[in-house]
From TrEMBL:
Gene3D superfamilies: Tetratricopeptide repeat domain. This is Pentatricopeptide repeat-containing protein. InterPro entries: At1g68980-like_TPR, PPR_rpt, TPR-like_helical_dom_sf. Residues 55-209 form the At1g68980-like TPR repeats domain.
Length: 655
């Protein structure tokens, strides 16, 4: 069927006129002579500069080969090259393995100078002694040329292979040439080599020269996209049929582009029949290519018709045209058509698209996303306005690219308003979009927009809120905004979708204490306990440190009384003192002069076998109560006197 689809054209002979530099032009100045050495004159004999004899003895040859092998092994490339040249100048070629080792070594160095050496060596051997060359060695050299982006010598090498009838499997050289051409954005040189290779494969029945599908498509791409030649394209198709290379969706897509460009509707219809005949069900590449071709020739009516027909065929499940195709479409409409035509096209597609269509597959998304990618955000807004003027309904796919653009440009206030509008229309964004918008808002410290988007997220009944919640809390912590953290936490604390723990409240309390806002910290602590979140050692440490900084030691005493009740009622299993908390309480209570409480802490620490460094509390006592006398306390408060005496005895201050 594939063979019958196109008329058979006669084989065109391989042109000897190169489209690339001649074989050795890139080697100037020459580093490897390819000319035959003239025999020395009998009257004026000359000597080589290195005093090499005119004929090599077996011993000299063996020495040179040994030097060559040793130099390769030790990466002494210049010495290896010198030995090889000496041997080759007298047609005393090294062994096959040694010859290929040298070329492979030169190719592996990835510098132009040694690639030139490897190239010159291969071409020389092709003409002089090609039986020494291994096909894999040619493959290695071509890959090095690909990596060095040297297209001209790569083509020259392949042409030299053909000229000298050195045929190796296509897989060892053809696909590398395709990569080189794609890297340089031009396949014209490859098409010439491709045609010659296929002629040889067909005429001489050399199956190993059969090109790969990728190579055939590269040749088709040259004919369809670069040359825009139907004759050349159909010749490649016929060659594929003769050599038994089965086409794929890409093959048909390239032809579809060319036929659309030329306005050959009958050929397009025939091509669609072939696609079905080959069993291809995904027509995404085919439709994208048709759209590109129609855009290129300015046939915008056919562009719209193709897209609408494609939607009908998919049952409204959207199209996969690709970003490149949409960019071509938008550019074509803006150059040859108008904003109104684009808006009309989107409106018509939305009437055909299913409500369950994937957002990224909707035509509206593709068009607006292309506008954004091309830096035409203003044009995207103009399309919005035109669609509203036409009374067309705006699908979610139209909004999402705008949101992404706002996110990228950190226009977070506009993004928050657009999210609200989207929610009011009954559309629901995905979690990733919400997360990205909230992260963008927090990164530029637009906290109100982040809160607004999170509210919309909650109202949209998104099940996974934890990621965005953590983003907001982390951002507020880093920005030192505990008052916003407290208000935010208070707002969402009862939402079962969000996992809130004691550590969240601790973050707020710590931030308030660090800022010296102790009343706010105390209020947060009370709110925390009211909502039945259990304070832990970190909660109390933050409060103690805050009170000590402000010298509010009585508040520390109140905290100790609460912790003491907690331990007595709940037991040590639920709340357990640790070294840090004991240290913080002791230091603060000593500073405050609450020695009765100090001894209570000491007693608890002894019960729980917590080590206490007394020196720190001696210092605290001497700094704050150096002049305090027991005799003064005896007259005022007997219990305080007893507590002071007990502390001094414990701390070693009784002397």
């Amino acid at each position: 069927m594939w063979r019958r689809a196109f008329c058979i054209l006669s084989q065109r002979p391989f042109s000897s006129q190169p489209e690339i530099p001649t074989l050795y032009s890139f080697l100037q100045p020459s580093i490897f002579s390819l000319k035959r050495t003239q025999p020395p004159s009998s009257t004026t004999p000359t000597k080589p500069q290195d005093q090499t004899p005119l004929t090599l003895t077996q011993e000299h040859k063996s020495n040179l080969e040994f030097t060559l092998q040793t130099s390769i092994n030790t990466n002494n490339t210049d010495e290896a090259w010198k030995s090889f040249k000496t041997l080759s100048n007298y047609s005393a070629f090294p062994s096959k393995s040694l010859t290929n080792s040298l070329i492979t070594h030169l190719s592996s160095l990835n510098d132009t100078h040694n690639i030139k050496r490897a190239f010159a060596s291969v071409v020389f051997l092709l003409e002089k002694k090609q039986e020494l060359l291994q096909p894999e060695t040619v493959h290695v050299l071509l890959k090095s040329m690909r990596d060095a982006n040297t297209a001209a010598p790569a083509f020259a090498l392949v042409k030299s292979m053909f000229k000298n009838r050195f045929f190796i499997p296509f897989s060892l050289w053809g696909d590398v040439l395709v990569e080189i051409c794609r890297k340089n954005g031009n396949f014209s040189g490859f098409l010439q080599v491709f045609n010659e290779n296929c002629r040889i494969a067909s005429d001489e029945k050399l199956n190993f020269l059969r090109p790969s599908l990728a190579a055939c498509n590269a040749a088709l791409e040259c004919c369809c996209r670069e040359l825009e030649s139907i004759t050349d394209a159909e010749k490649v198709v016929e060659t594929m049929s003769v050599l038994g290379v089965r086409p794929d969706e890409c093959s048909f897509g390239l032809l579809a582009y060319l036929y659309a460009l030329k306005g050959l509707n009958e050929n397009i219809a025939e091509l669609e029949g072939l696609i079905h005949g080959f069993g291809f069900t995904d027509k995404g590449v085919f439709l994208s290519s048709l759209v590109s071709g129609f855009v290129k020739c300015g046939n915008l009516g056919s562009v719209s018709a193709t897209i609408l027909r494609g939607l009908r065929e998919t049952g409204g499940q959207g199209l996969c045209l690709g970003e490149g195709t949409y960019s071509e479409l938008v550019t074509g409409f803006l150059q040859n058509g108008s904003i109104k035509d684009l808006a009309t096209l989107i409106g018509e597609t939305q009437t055909l698209e299913s409500p369950s269509v994937i957002v990224e597959r909707s035509v509206g998304y593709g068009v607006i996303n292309a506008c954004v990618s091309l830096g035409l955000l203003v044009k995207a807004h103009m399309i919005f306005d035109e669609m509203n003027a036409q009374g067309a309904s705006l699908g979610l796919g139209v909004y999402v690219p705008i949101l992404k653009a706002y996110c990228k440009e950190q226009k977070t206030a506009e993004a928050a308003q657009l999210v609200t509008d989207i929610s009011s229309l009954g559309f629901q964004l995905d979690v990733a979009t919400y997360d990205a918008l909230i992260e963008a808002s927090m990164s530029c410290q637009d906290f109100q927009s982040a809160f607004s988007i999170f509210r919309d997220m909650r109202e949209a009944r998104i099940p996974d809120l934890q990621g965005s919640y953590l983003t907001i809390m982390t951002g507020l912590t880093e920005s030192h905004r505990p008052e916003l953290m407290a208000a935010f936490l208070d707002e969402i604390v009862e939402d079962p979708r969000i996992e809130i723990g004691t550590h969240d409240w601790n973050s707020i309390i710590h931030a308030f204490c660090k800022a010296g806002r102790l009343e706010d910290a105390r209020r947060t602590f009370r709110r925390m306990t009211f909502l039945q979140f259990e304070p832990n050692d970190q909660t109390y440490l933050s409060l103690i440190n805050g009170y000590v900084t402000a010298e509010k030691y009585f508040n520390v005493l109140m905290l100790w009384n609460e912790v003491k009740r907690k331990i007595s009622t709940e037991g040590e299993k639920k709340f357990k003192l640790d070294n840090s908390l004991v240290d913080a309480f002791l230091y603060a209570l000593v500073k405050g002069g609450f020695f009765d409480a100090v001894m209570q802490v000491v007693e608890k620490s002894q019960e729980m076998k917590i080590f206490v460094d007394k020196w720190r509390y001696k210092q605290a006592f001497m700094e704050k109560h150096k002049k305090l006398r027991v005799s003064k306390l005896r007259r005022r408060n007997r219990s305080k006197m007893d507590a002071l005496i007990a502390f001094k005895n414990w701390a070693g201050l009784s002397a």
